[in-house]
Amino acid sequence: MEISSNIPRGWSFYDLDKVDSTNEEIKRLLKKNKSTPILLIAKKQTKGRGRLNRKWVSLEGNLFFSFAIDFSELSAETISYLVSVSLINSIDVFLLNHKKEIQCKWPNDICFRGKKIAGILMEVFNSGKIVVVGVGVNLIQTYIDNSLYLVGDLSEFSIDRKALMFNFCNEFIRQKLNFEKHGFGYIRDIWISRARGIGSKIIVNLGHNQYTGIFRGVNNKGSLILEQYNGEEKIISTGDVIFISGV
Ligand code: BTN
Asked: How far is the CA of 132 from the centre of ligand 1 (A)?
């Protein structure tokens, strides 16, 4: 795959210095009836947000962008997998001999050498016809004070933030076409080939509840398949995965 450094045709593009959150800024544009697809990048975020309303510490030099697309023919799970796969492929091209060290962690984290380097925040806008996808990638700095998971960065590769973002967008369009042609299984199989910890012992934390067992992969809806210790299979559609043996 080659690095594609153009704004995709037909997308509006906003390049900002500082915002509270790129997701919030895109939602403001949508409220003003700006039409999709929209792509927005900012150098700084003062109120970056992660999944489950967690804070996303946004150190300058890292990549923060969001895009809004019409998602009438796509499910939220499909988009989540499309984004993860596209992000892995688009990072890969900058990593030369280290490509396979980038992995995905269910549901939609991206890891390098076992540490989280990128996160994805998806929000359905208004009537459910538009999805806003926010992507944060630790390109140069790591915020280490985090007890939930290990955090890493890609600083050794000197990746240009806009080059990665444009490459991602073009890869996303390519993978969306693959999905339309071959179905969800095609995207899921790419995800599985780069997934962390299939066959390992995990805890899946649902906030109010926890399940422990062996991670057996993901089903045709993108849900996690957990083989519990009593042999029963549990299908989980949302939660945080913790690897017990430190995979
Ligand atoms: C997570 O892993 O919890 C998701 C993190 C998503 C962070 C990105 S940074 C750009 C966009 N704007 C935000 O406020 N959040 C997302």
From this structure: 11
Q: Which numeric CATH code is attached to 201-243?
A: 2.30.30.100
CA angle 223–229–233, rounded 5-degree value: 30
Ligand 1 contact via 99 beta carbon (within 6 Å): no
Q: How far is the CA of 152 from the centre of ligand 1 (A)?
A: 15
Map out the domains of the chain as residue ranges.
12-193, 201-243
Ligand 1 centre from 38 Cα, in Å?
17
Supply the pTM of this predicted model.
0.94
Ligand 1 within 6 A of CB of 67? no
pLDDT in tens, 191-211: 999 999 999 999 999 988 999
- Closest-CA residue to 106 (of 230, 221, 228, 25): 221
